[in-house]
Automatic annotation (TrEMBL):
<dbReference type="GO" id="GO:0046167">
    <property type="term" value="P:glycerol-3-phosphate biosynthetic process"/>
</dbReference>
<dbReference type="Pfam" id="PF01210">
    <property type="entry name" value="NAD_Gly3P_dh_N"/>
</dbReference>
<feature type="binding site">
    <location>
        <position position="284"/>
    </location>
    <ligand>
        <name>NADPH</name>
    </ligand>
</feature>
<dbReference type="GO" id="GO:0141152">
    <property type="term" value="F:glycerol-3-phosphate dehydrogenase (NAD+) activity"/>
</dbReference>
<feature type="binding site">
    <location>
        <position position="140"/>
    </location>
    <ligand>
        <name>sn-glycerol 3-phosphate</name>
    </ligand>
</feature>
<dbReference type="InterPro" id="IPR008927">
    <property type="entry name" value="6-PGluconate_DH-like_C_sf"/>
</dbReference>
<comment type="pathway">
    <text>Membrane lipid metabolism; glycerophospholipid metabolism.</text>
</comment>
<keyword id="KW-0443">Lipid metabolism</keyword>
<dbReference type="GO" id="GO:0006650">
    <property type="term" value="P:glycerophospholipid metabolic process"/>
</dbReference>
<feature type="binding site">
    <location>
        <position position="282"/>
    </location>
    <ligand>
        <name>NADPH</name>
    </ligand>
</feature>
<feature type="domain" description="Glycerol-3-phosphate dehydrogenase NAD-dependent N-terminal">
    <location>
        <begin position="5"/>
        <end position="160"/>
    </location>
</feature>
<dbReference type="InterPro" id="IPR006168">
    <property type="entry name" value="G3P_DH_NAD-dep"/>
</dbReference>
<feature type="binding site">
    <location>
        <position position="34"/>
    </location>
    <ligand>
        <name>NADPH</name>
    </ligand>
</feature>
<feature type="binding site">
    <location>
        <position position="194"/>
    </location>
    <ligand>
        <name>sn-glycerol 3-phosphate</name>
    </ligand>
</feature>
<dbReference type="GO" id="GO:0051287">
    <property type="term" value="F:NAD binding"/>
</dbReference>
<keyword id="KW-0521">NADP</keyword>
<dbReference type="Pfam" id="PF07479">
    <property type="entry name" value="NAD_Gly3P_dh_C"/>
</dbReference>
Amino acid sequence: MAYKKIAVIVAGSWGTALSRVLADNGHQVKLWTRNPVQADEINNERRNGKFLPGAVLPKGITATTDISDAVKDAEAVLFVAPSSAMREVARQASSYIRKDALIIHATKGFESDTLKRMSTVLAEELARPEDEVVVLSGPSHAEEVVDRHPTTIVVASKEIGCAETAQDLFMNDAYFRVYTNPDLIGVETAGAIKNIIALGAGLSDGLGFGDNAKAALITRGLAEIARLGAAMGANPLTFAGLAGVGDLIVTCTSQHSRNWRAGSMLAQGLPLTDVLERMGMVVEGVRTTKSAHVLAARHNVEMPITDQLYAVLFEGLSPDKAVGALMGRVRTHEIEEIASASRNKWLKG
């Protein structure tokens, strides 16, 4: 494979970790940041101390504060902006990106006001077919990837050739394995909604509950993800893979997870504003809870965990009362939900 020039937008923890993967694979990486101090630190000290303290970055990564300089000659552009900023940064970059550049994103969330997936936002702002946008997702903490710990993820696109090109860019034999998947909707939806369940897992741990509670939360959370995803047009089988149950497990069980940490703080009685201030980084699960609450109503999908977390985050419900509401729900039959998913169009015939 020929080495390529790749732009990465922006220089947060995940963008920086993925830049290391690309640089390790021999590609020339331009990493964009608005912060000139951060750019100088990356270029001169080979560090990004705020987001990945302790990690030393390879020389194949160059930081810039000029978005046109980052993307103008890039053969692929990887967007890792927060969901709230994706449209803005895509719009800034759009006139400088090559028409033949591969567009990839690794952001897990929805646009808050439109409820659109990130691939749709990018397609609109970059005037590209959504079918050619690639999403990278799966069970992956930036802190482990930047230390070259074995990691396996998935790249999804409706155009399989685009997914395979992205697979070639990222995959290596040392520590980063990449699978392809044609289900763009399923991979994006799973990546977004699992952050809600991770908030719940942190809340459960913060309340002092045990493994039984967390196992139930993860399992029932996966059912919620699959229900909404299927209603939005996803293949239910996607949720049994890396982007679904794989990412859900790693995000709900690790203290690397921002969403888990935020949920744990909420359980200790801290107000949401204080939690977000202490985190100092984007907690996508908070915005996504609001988006999923609206999407569930729009698609007539039952999402009780999401509903209770919405009440905790935005309506002042105490975490212990949210748990009580979940435990006291009307009894139902688990197999009915599985049968409902099996009637989805993806599984017919």
